[in-house]
Amino acid sequence: MAKPDQAVVEIGVISQGATAVAAAAQNAKQTDVVLADLSSALGGTTKLKTTSYSVQPNYRYPKPGAALEIAGYTATNVLEVKLDDLVQVGKVIDGATHSGANVIRKLEYKLKDPSAVRGEALRKAAEQAKASVEAIALGLGLRVVRVLSAEEVTSEEGFGSYKKAPPPPPPGGTTTPATQLEVGAIEVGASVIVRAEIGQ
Prior knowledge:
two-stranded antiparallel ribbon, elongated, Alpha-Beta Plaits, 30% helix
C-alpha cells in the first residue's frame, strides 16, 4: 500500500447545436473559458492536454421503416489535467464545472514513480513463494534442494476513480458545497512464480 502523489482527472465540455459548425463553435467558446480558468488555477498549461475531441450527429428515430433524420450535432472536448497537489483536486473540479465544464469523465490517483513500491511488492511476493515451497516440501517430508527459477508474472496498480455530475451554476450569490474527495491508498501487487527442486 502506498499514498498516491499525483491525480489525473478528465474534464470535458459537451455542446449541442443545430449544425456541426454551430456545435463546434459553441464548444470552442465554452472550452476556452474552462481552459483559461484551469490555466490560471494551475499556473500554466503544462499540466493540460486534450485527450479526445469529436463532433457527432444526433439522430431522430421516426416511424418504423423511415430513414433516420439528423436532429442536431454534439461536440465533445475532453481535457486531461495532472495535479501533484492532491488537495487541489476538488477545487479544480468545482472551478471547472463553474466555468462551463459539464462532464467529469474520471479521476485516477497515481504514483509518479511506482518503482520503489513495486520492488517492495516483488520482494514480499518472492518471500511468500519461497515460504510456500518450503511448506510443501516439509509436508512431504522433504526439503528444498535449490531454486531452479523465479519470475514475475504480472503487476497491477489499483486506482481510485471518481465520477461526478456537475452542479448547475449557483443562483445569485448562493455558494454550493465544495466537492469532498477521499484519496485513500494505492495497492501495488506483484505475482512471482518460483520453481524449486525438492528432495531428501
